[in-house]
Amino acid sequence: MPQYRLTFNRGPTSRALRAAATRGNLLAAEHVLGVSNDRVPLDEGELQRTGTAAVDRADMTAAISYSGPYAVPQHERMDYRHAPGRQAKFLESALNDSRSEVGALIAAEMRRALR
Questions:
Q1: Whole-angstrom distance, CA of residue 17 vs CA of residue 105
Q2: How far apart are CA 94 and CA 35, in angstroms?
Q3: DSSP letter, residue 68
Q4: Around Cβ 49, how many Cβ atoms within 10 Å?
Q5: How far is residue 108's CA from residue 24's CA, in Å, rounded to a whole number?
Q6: What is the radius of gyration, based on Cα positions, of the chain?
Q7: What is the pLDDT of residue 8?
């Protein structure tokens, strides 16, 4: 019976997977930002323009934020009135509704790195 030997090159593989996870995190964060932008309260578009997505490569975490001066009240205040299709909790609901897409985007990047 033939014998086979497998050599695992851990260093380059780990670096490739880490880079893929970073790309996946950024793609996922940008996807959630896009969904959130479709829900963000819209008067003049100021709040929507301040949305950003970023990834911390060291911690392997993604962040999505809105830096407008009234971003927090617009997000948290459930008693504010919004135009049809716009809502409070725009970022939170976008993340919750995009869980499967977020996982798929990260997984796809990881699979590409292992080819």
A1: 14
A2: 6
A3: S
A4: 13
A5: 8
A6: 19
A7: 80
The domain locations on the chain are 10-113
pLDDT at position 44 over 80: no
Q: Which residues pair with 52 in a beta bridge?
A: 65
pTM confidence score? 0.87
Distance CA 75, CA 7 (A): 51
Whole-number Å distance between alpha carbons of 95 and 37 = 12
Section 96-106 average pLDDT: 97
pLDDT tens column, 58-70: 999 999 999 988 8
**CA pair distance 21, 57, nearest whole angstrom:** 9
Task: Enter the DSSP assignment of 6.
Answer: -
What residue has token string 């459930």?
Answer: 78
